[in-house]
Every structure is written in structure tokens, then in C-alpha cells.
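Risk register update: the risk of archive-format incompatibility is retired. Evidence:
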Amino acid sequence: MKVTKQEAQQTLRGTGGSPQKDRAELESYAGACDSVRITENTATNANEQRLLEQILNRNNLNQAFERVKRNKGAHGVDKMGIGEMLNYLKANGEAIKQAIAESKYKPNPVRRVEIPKDDGNSKRPLGIPTVIDRLIQQAIAQVLSPIFEQQFHDNSYGFRPKRGCHDAIKKSQEYITQGYKYVVDMDLEKFFDTVNQSKLIEVLGRTIKDGRVISLIHKYLRAGVVVRHSYEDTVEGVPQGGPLSPLLSNIMLNELDNELEKRGHKFVRYADDCAPRMRGQVA
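Archived output:
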């Protein structure tokens, strides 16, 4: 099997050059171009400065471990498996935490696979992170999700706690009862693949003032992808398949939600599908 030099280098980057040598399993996931300058130590107060410490908190990491273990899934580029994760973390966990704390950790590229879409005629690309990177992403998501939940629009329902498609349908029925009879069905084509990373970092920076966390997320966005044993840069998009991706998509699309509300539109959004409602005839 031929592996590019770049892929080999990327695969060995996880913990200061030590290969992550076990095998992983794809979760059934629910579902330097910055306009803001990234600095590793930016913070405006003690709580914001310690956001990374919250992510690396032992309890938070243990919860992330259990979540990744429960979700199972396919292997990443390093072929580490869920069953091998615990022993690997016992030997390397502290080194990984130290590398992240010192802003030296470099995520592995994701492994690209394609799965059939519901229409049966096309395929959806998924980027499978290594099991260790899934754990770290899950730990980040667990800390950031409650923060951004306070900002998210009430009419978004995808990838959010205690919300789902049935809630979105119920909201749509409420609009019908109120007399909104016309619907504009919006599906943002290839949304995950075309997210402007610079804009996403800018939006994240409005809330996250710990520059180390912003930098870590940015590294995940730019970690690259391995397609058929060949490495490719990721200069745009959010890889669809990692535990952090649904949260990042909602953070980005919350901008759309706020704009729709500002313009007076009634709408229901589930992930990258949105259905604005209108009372009168659609022009």
C-alpha cells in the first residue's frame, strides 16, 4: 500500500511524533486565513483564560471517553480501534494533555469515506478522525455547547440537546395554524464542504476569548484529509463526521438564523435545511 510522505508525517503528529498505533470505529454521529488574528494566550478574564483547562478537566475527558466508546465507529488514518483506546491513553494521555496545554498538539488528518445519501443516487463525504482526535473534539464540544446554546436561535433544531426533527415538525405545524401557508424549502448545497473557515474563526472569536481554544479548533479545521492514501489540504469547509462538526455548523448557521429573524421571516431550521414560512403568495 503506497502512502505519501505527507500522509506519513501527518499520521505521526498526534503526540509529539509518537505514532498512534491502534484502530478506531466511525461514530454514528447525530447526524492562517483568519480575519481575526489568532494568538495562543489571548484572554480577557480569568474564566475565559481557563476555558482550555475546562476542556482538559479529568471529568470532562472521562465523559468524552465514554461517549466516544459508546458511539463506536470505523478507524481513522492511524487505524486505532475503540478497544485499544484505553491502554493507549494510559500510556500517552498525560503527554497528549501537555501537548494540548502547550499548544503543541497537531491533529491527524481525517480519513475520507463516502456513504449513500437518502436519495440513493449520490453520496455524502464523511471525514473520520482518529479515535484520539474524536475524544479531544468531543471534550471541546462538551464545554462549548452550553456556552453557545445560550446564543442559538429558538427555531433551530438540528444537533442540539433535547431537540430533534419531531420538534421541528411541531413548530412547522404551529406556523400552519397561524396562517402561514407557503413554504420556501432551502437546502444549503455542500454546506459542510464549503464553510468559510476564516468567517467561522471570526464568529468563534466573538465568544471564545481563550486563544488557545480558538487555535486548537483552527488546527482541526486545517488538519487535512486522506483520500485513497493521498493527503489533501483542507482550506475550506468543516469535515462532516467529527463530534465537533455539528456544533461548528450551528455556530455558523446561527448567523443565518439571526438574519432571517431580522428580516421578519418565520422559519424552521434543521442543520443545513431551512424552511421559511410566508402568509401570502410566494413571488
